[in-house]
Amino acid sequence: MYSASTNQTDNCDVAVIGAGPQGLLLATWLKQERPALDVVVLDRAAAPGHKIGESTLSGFCRAMRSTGIRHDVLQRLFYTKNGLGFFHTDAHTTALQTAPEYITETFDETFQVERRTCDSLLVANAQLAGVSVRFSHTVKPKESTFKAGSNHLSCETPQGAATIQARLVVDASGPSSVLGRHFGGYAESNVPFQTSAAWAYFKNVKWLNEYTGWQNVAEFPRDEYTQHLCFKEGWVWYIPIVSWEKASDENLMAMVNYLADPETPMLTRDELSQKFDCPYEQIWSIGIVLRSDRDQALNQGAEAAFDHYKAKIPALATLLEGAEILDDYYPNHSPYAVRKNFRRFAKEVTGDGWLLVGDAAFFIDPLRSPGLTGGVATAYQALQSVLTALDQGDLSQAQFAGYEAYVRELYDMLEEQNQIAYMSHNYPQAISLVRRFGEVSSRDHFNGICDEPYQISDTNVWGHLCPEHRQRQRLVWQIMREEEIEVGNRCPIADQEPKDYERMMLRLRQAVGEHLDQYMDLTPYIMQNPSEQGALAPAKVMPKPAWVDLGQGASGVPRADLVSVRA
Ligand SMILES: Cc1cc2nc3c(=O)[nH]c(=O)nc-3n(C[C@H](O)[C@H](O)[C@H](O)COP(=O)(O)OP(=O)(O)OC[C@H]3O[C@@H](n4cnc5c(N)ncnc54)[C@H](O)[C@@H]3O)c2cc1C
User: Fold this and answer.
1) What is the pLDDT of residue 51?
2) Is the dihedral of CA 175, 177, 181, 186 positive or negative?
3) Please, is 221 exposed, middle or buried when counting C-beta atoms within 10 Å of its C-beta (0-12, 13-18, 19+)?
4) What is the CA radius of gyration of the chain?
5) How far from each other are the two terminal CA atoms of the chain, in whole angstroms?
C-alpha cells in the first residue's frame, strides 16, 4: 500500500526526496498548478512514522488547507491549539500560577499534531492530487548524477537498486539534507550559541486547566496553548497530543484516505475511531531545550537533564508529578530522544537541476515553533521558482538565484529572532516585550491575509521580513547580545539574576517601547503576575555600553550595518 503510486514510470519531471510535510505540500501544489507534470516523492521509510515537530502555527495550517485539506479534518485528528504561553521560571517558581506569564492568543485555530497521522494525511492528499509517493526508496547521492534537466537518482529499495530520472530534484529530506550534505555541506553556522533538546512522552499528566489559583483567566484552557517554561539556560515545552499510535498503518491510512476525500461526510472523532478501528488516547509531549553556552546538563543524559531541572525549578517537578513516562511507545524512542547542537544551514541551497526546502535547507530551533511554518514558506517560494524554471525550460542554478537569496534572508531573520527569544529569558518582562514586538508585525500581517488562501505574502513569515521590522529586530538583538556579553564578563551564568539585566530591559524599552505603545491594540495578550509594573513604560535614556564586536550574521552576512541602526 505505501509504495502505491499513480504512475510507475522511472522518468518524471520533478522528483522530491522526502515524504515529510514540506516535500508533500510542494509536490501537491505542483500537481495543482501543472496537472500534466509527473511528480514523484521518494522516502526511505517504509511508511509515515513518528517524528518530532508537533506544535503548528497558522502559516502551516493555512498551507495544508490550501491543498484541499479541510479544517474540520484537522479538528477531528488533532489536539486544538490556540496560541503560545510563556512562564518565566527559576528556582523560586514553586507553582506556575505564581510565575510571570504571557499568553499570546492565536490568529486562528491551529493544532498539536502527531506526526505519523499528519504526514499520513498529507500523503493521502498528495496521492489524491496525482502525486506518486514511493516509500522504501532511499536516495543515494553518491551513486546519483545531477544535471539540470537530467538528474539520475539512484535509490535503494527492498527489491534492489532503482533509478529515477528527473528534470528537477527537490531535496525535502529534513535533517538528513541529502543534497545539502552531498554538495556544500550542512553545518553549524556562525551563531553565538547552539541548542540541544531531549524529550519524552507521558500519560496521566495533570491538566493545567485543573490547577487552581490562576490570577487571570486565559481565553482558552491553558492546555490549548503550547506552553513554554522559560529559564535562563533554556526552556521546557508542554504539548498535549491526541495519539493514534495504536492504530495499524493500514487502518490509519484508510482513515486518512477517507478524510482526504472532500466528498466524504464528516464524522466525529469517536465515529472515525470506531469505523476504521483506530484507537486514540491522550498523551503529552514534554521536552527540554538547553543553550550549550549555558548548560551542558544533556551530556549527563536526557533523564539526568530532566531530573536536574525538576530539582532546580519546583514548578517543573509539580508539572510532572504523577505523570507516567511512556517507554517504547514510539519505535526507536525509549523513552527519551535527544538531538544535540541542531542549528544547521546548508551551504548550497540550489544547484543545476536541484534545490532544497524545509529542514534540508536549514534548521533553527523549536522555541516558538518556527519549523513547519518557516519550512512551508521555503516550499512555497521554491514552488514559484520551479514553475518559472519549468515553464522556461531552464533548470540551471541561475534560475534559482532569487530562491537562494530568499532562503538566506529567511534564515537570518528566524535565527536572529530565535536568539532574541532565548535572551529574553534573562528577565521576566523582556519575554513580554519581545513577544509584543513580534506580535505587532505578525498581527498586522495576518490581518491582511487571513481571509485569503495561502499565498506568496505568507512566505514573508509573520511579516517579519519587512525592512522596518528587520531593522528594529537587529537593534533589539544587538542590545540583548551586548548586555549578555557584558553581564557574562562580570558574572558567571550560575550567579546571574534578573536584576543583572535591568539595564537591558531599559535599553529595550528605549529602543522599541514607543513603537510598541502605538500598537497596544495589536497585542491582546494576557499577563499574569507581572513582577514589575510598567513593563512598557516610556523609555528612559540609558548610557550605551562600549561597542562589543558582534561578528557576523548567522549565515555569514557581516553585521556592519548594525552600527548605523544603533547610532
Ligand atoms: C526537538 C525538536 C522539536 C521540534 N518542535 C517543533 C514544533 O513544535 N513545531 C514545528 O513546527 N517544528 C518543530 N520542529 C521542527 C520540525 O520537526 C521540522 O521543521 C519538520 O519536521 C521538517 O519537515 P520536513 O518536511 O522539512 O522534513 P521531515 O519531516 O524531517 O521529512 C524528511 C523526510 O525525508 C526522508 N529522508 C531522509 N533521507 C532520505 C533519503 N536518503 N532518501 C529518501 N528519503 C529520505 C525521511 O524519511 C523523512 O520522512 C522540531 C524539531 C526538533 C528537533
Assistant:
1) 97
2) negative
3) middle
4) 23
5) 62
Q: CATH homologous superfamily of domain 1-65+114-189+343-419?
A: FAD/NAD(P)-binding domain (3.50.50.60)
pLDDT at position 394 over 80: yes
Residue 290 forms beta bridges with which residues? 196, 234
pLDDT exceeds cutoff 90 at 541 = no
Confidence at residue 106, expressed as pLDDT on a 0 to 100 scale: 76
Confidence of residue 550 (pLDDT cuts 50, 70, 90): very low
Question: How far is the C-alpha of 446 from the C-alpha of 327, rounded, in Å?
Answer: 40
Q: For ligand 1, is residue 53 a contact (CB within 6 Å)?
A: yes
Beta bridge partners of 362: 345
Give tens-digit pLDDT for 65-105.
999 999 999 999 999 999 999 999 999 999 999 998 888 87
Architecture (CATH level 2) of domain 79-112+192-244+280-342? 2-Layer Sandwich (3.30)
C-beta of 178 in contact with ligand 1 (< 6 A): yes
- Residue 136, pLDDT > 50, answer yes
- Which is higher by pLDDT, 31 or 550? 31
Provide the pLDDT for residue 308. Answer: 95
Identical fold at 1-65+114-189+343-419 and 79-112+192-244+280-342?
no
Pocket test of ligand 1: the residue of 24, 40, 44, 410 to mutate, having most ligand atoms within 8 Å of its CB, is 44
Q: How far apart are CA 348 and CA 362, in angstroms?
A: 11
pLDDT confidence of residue 1: 44
DSSP 297: G
> Whose C-alpha lies nearest to ligand 1, atom 18?
371
Which atom of ligand 1 is found nearest the CA of 140? 41
Element containing residue 481 per DSSP (H, E): helix 467-490
Pure H helices in 261-337: 269-275, 302-312, 314-320
* CA 524 – CA 291 distance, rounded (Å): 30
Give mean pLDDT, residues 474-502.
96
Query: What are the residue ranges spanned by the domains of the chain?
Result: 1-65+114-189+343-419, 79-112+192-244+280-342, 427-566
475 alpha carbon to ligand 1 midpoint, in Å?
A: 32
In this structure, what DSSP letter does residue 278 have?
Answer: -
Nearest partner of 193 among 119, 269, 294, 263, judged by Cα: 294
Rounded to 5°, the CA angle 151-153-156 comes to: 175
464 Cα distance to chain centroid? 15
C-alpha cell at 213: 489559583
Residue 534: predicted pLDDT: 44
